[in-house]
Amino acid sequence: MPLLNYMKREIACKIVYYGTGFSGKTTNLQFIHRQLSPDTRGELISMATQTDRTLFFDFLPLDLGDISGWKVRFALYTVPGQVEYNASRKLILNGTDALVFVADSDFMRRTDNYDALMNMSENLKDYDTSLEKIPWVLQYNKRDLRNAMSVDQLETDLNTMNVPSFESIASEGLGIFSTLRAVSKILLETLANNM
Questions:
Q1: Which of 4, 97, 131, 139 can pair with 13 through a Cys bridge, CB separation 3.0 to 4.6 Å?
Q2: Is 153 exposed, middle or buried (0-12, 13-18, 19+ CB in 10 A)?
Q3: Is 10 exposed, middle or buried (0-12, 13-18, 19+ CB in 10 A)?
Q4: Stated pTM of the model
């Protein structure tokens, strides 16, 4: 549930980017950070290993300005993609208000994508929530690969709940903001309906 400060009329929401290692989660946040004015975004904080793999998380605060008299802030996080950091993944999911699942379109990552989605679903259970209860979208990244799975295949494998899905090439910035806008809109609509 978003944090509401009625005295300051502020809403703070947490969006987590989840997926396999090297699927493009960090690349999403890096592109968003580069494109936004310093007035609307904070510092991008990354805790990566020497091989540029996310060790614990990436964090990017965004200030969306006023919406209906409330100051809205988003905190964007990524989880480590490596299975051995599941405890970190689980910890980062605590207090999540919305999710972006970043799938790798590489045909060789088909099973990894499915396993990561199931892992995300399992980890949410520790916080008494589920994919049925939380706003989320899918991003099919790396659409420029020669061996990219078809969108139909990705939809069949991963989108059994018929959530919004977006094609992207995160390294070029394609599809990043459409994904962020969609998850933000769903999150804000959910919040408005529950206030």
A1: 97
A2: middle
A3: middle
A4: 0.87
